[in-house]
Amino acid sequence: MNSSLASLIKNLGNDHPITTTYFKKQDYSSEQISLAYRKGIFSYKYIDFHDQFKKIELPLIHEFHSVLEGKISQEDYNYIQNVLKGFGYKNLGEYNDLYLKIDMLSLVYIQMFD
Predict the structure, then answer these.
(1) Can you give the residue ranges of every domain in the chain?
(2) Which domain of life is it from (predicted)?
(3) What is the value of pTM for the model shown?
C-alpha cells in the first residue's frame, strides 16, 4: 500500500461491497450507505479530551483541521455536516465511531486485493 487511505478509498469509486453489506445489515438506507463511500475527515487536534466527544456541534471550520492535512476545505466540512445529519448523529462521539468503522471496513476490502 503505497498510497494514502483516502486515495485508495477514492479509487474504489462506488465499489464497496464490505461497507455496503455491513451497513445494510444495520438497516441503513442507500443514501446513508453512500455517505460511507468516502474517507471520513476527523480533527484529532480538536478532540483533546474525552468530553469533546459529547459535543453536539462541529467546531467552526477554522478550528477543524488535521495535523496531516492542515485546514479542511469547505467541501470536506460540508461532507461532515451531511454525515452528521444523514445518520442522525447527536454528537462527535457518534461521528467518531462511524469514521473508524468506515476506515476499518475500507481497509479490509483494500487488503483483500493488495
Answers:
(1) 5-112
(2) Eukaryota
(3) 0.82
Reported residue count of the chain is 114
**pLDDT of 53-87, one tens digit each?**
998 888 888 887 665 667 788 998 999 999 999 99
Return the H-helix or E-strand segment holding 66.
strand 65-66
Assigned C-alpha cell, 108: 479490509
**Sequence letter at residue 41:** I
**DSSP-derived secondary structure letter, 49:** S
DSSP string, 91-111: SHHHHHHHHHHHHHHHHHHHH
Q: Quick one: which of 30, 45, 22, 42 has its CA closest to 94?
A: 42
CA 114 to chain centre: 22
